[in-house]
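Methods — Computational structure assignment.
A single polypeptide chain was analysed. Its primary sequence is given first, followed by the predicted tertiary structure written as structure tokens.
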Amino acid sequence: MEHILISACLLGVVCRYDGLSKPIDRQRIDALKEKYHLIPICPEIMGGLPTPRIPAEINAERRVLRRDGADVTENYRRGAEEALRLAKLFDCKIAILKERSPSCSTNGIYDGTFSKTLTDGEGIAAEYLRNAGLRVLGESDIEKLRTENF
């Protein structure tokens, strides 16, 4: 059975910036588990950030800044490197990541102004994983894994 990375918050782990999780429904998780071994990751925690934490966004220069102005780019990069290390360890070819996250988003990030404005782009960990050859999907793409063969 193939291993895939999955954002831990999608499995119900309390690791998001707001101290919560964003679990997908149990039926979708169970369907994934029938076909794949799920390897939960949270690149932000793996990069040394606490839960809860001050919200952060990626600016135009690809720096990750907290709402209070602190630069946490290195934490995000370190977390992305650790996620990639796990992907290689388990020979993962696919990652399912939390959309709209500065770490994990695959199809749109907040623009760094903290105005809730979405812009094209991807999170730091999503970029690392994609550049390493993984197929990186958001949680809204989970159904593709059930209908496609890899």
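Note: The longest helix spans residues 73-89.
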